[in-house]
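Re: your question about O-antigen ligase-like membrane protein

S., sorry for the slow reply, the queue was backed up all week. Below is exactly what I fed in.
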Amino acid sequence: MTAMSAIDRPRRLRRQHEGPYLAAMMLCTIVLQRFALSFGGNSIPLILPVILVFIAVGYATRVLEFDRFRGILVAILCLTGLACSLAQIAVGAVPSIFSLGLLAVLYVPAAFRSSQGPAAVALVATVFTRLMVGAAIVALLQFGLQYVGLPNVDWIGTLLPTEFTVQGFSPNAFIVYGSELRRSNGVIFLEPSFLSMYLGLAILIGIRRRTHWAVLLILLAGMVPTLAGNGLVILIPGAILTFFSPIRRNLLALLPGLVAAVAAAAVTPLGRLYVGRSGEASNSTSSSSFRFVQPYTRFLPASFDSPFHTLFGHGSGTADDYLNGLGLSDITRATIPKILFEYGMAGAVGILGVICVLFALGLAGRPWLLGLAFAFLFLNASLLQAELVFCTVFWLNILPPPERASRYSAAHQPILQTRVVEPA
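Result:
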């Protein structure tokens, strides 16, 4: 054995486990998203302590490395929240310590990244794609079986006590009020919109890896019974970026799936509902208005109701109290207006600005960046939602894109370009 091989052996042995480790971390952000723990009278998502353990063990075993610049950004985010809270306490306000602590803890993983080779990246992408193919099939079955009299039952919510499940979501809401048909969530996802988002992400990853058209077809078809546009928010910007990249020909594999998805929407009530929902934002009682319009019309005027609130906000956790006091609890606590309302302009710089910089750092080689960033900032109540924070941080910061990974081990490049062959 040469001196060089003796030095390399520990690193090679670790690399045998790096791909599975990252894949397991990714799986936990998906499979555990509906489960919760009770802590100090508050409910916290189970994935919060689980992912923090993954980060700690990954750093200790050198699967993950601490990024000093990202660490500084996360520190700025935490200190901004603390400074605003201290200012609010000084004038007699009572910010939520739990919300402030959650803000600090949730973004710790953003300070870490992986520099693993393309074999590990390819394994994570393969596991994720296969999981989402399974979820798409389950979603299609959930919806289709309703036509033969089998109801779409929320088994997790039915079998587990409420203290062990994340509350405040509609896992299988009716496709429209008065209908007997329910939207699909693939059983394990918090809501159909979450399933749609992950399917859109899986499609873009599949396009980048030249996945077989039949796999993309299943993923696209699975988006239809969710009756949610989150997947399209991820998919459309990513497809546009891919079109202007050297791998634009990979988009051709998407055509059969698009045809099938349109056909599925045409022969079910979902197609009409998709079209109808595109213009419902003007209706103040619609879910689109609650998500796209009223978070801004309700929060922004109140965010600037005094010089102090303009600068430091009303306090962490006060957005919920404000909407509940107005009887408008259905309005989404979208990230941007929530930050402005709770932390003011200081939060716009030190919290929102940091999040935007973290997203920008992950731009290269990730066509899903724009869609994920848009959904995080404008579409969802993402700021303190562990499921969305960890998903976004993992795919934008922790996991290297294929281009970066290839610089570490060019010998594994064929693995990244392996096609998924349709079974006979």
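The beta strands are 36-39, 42-45, 65-66, 112-113. The longest helix spans residues 3-31.

Happy to talk it through on Thursday.
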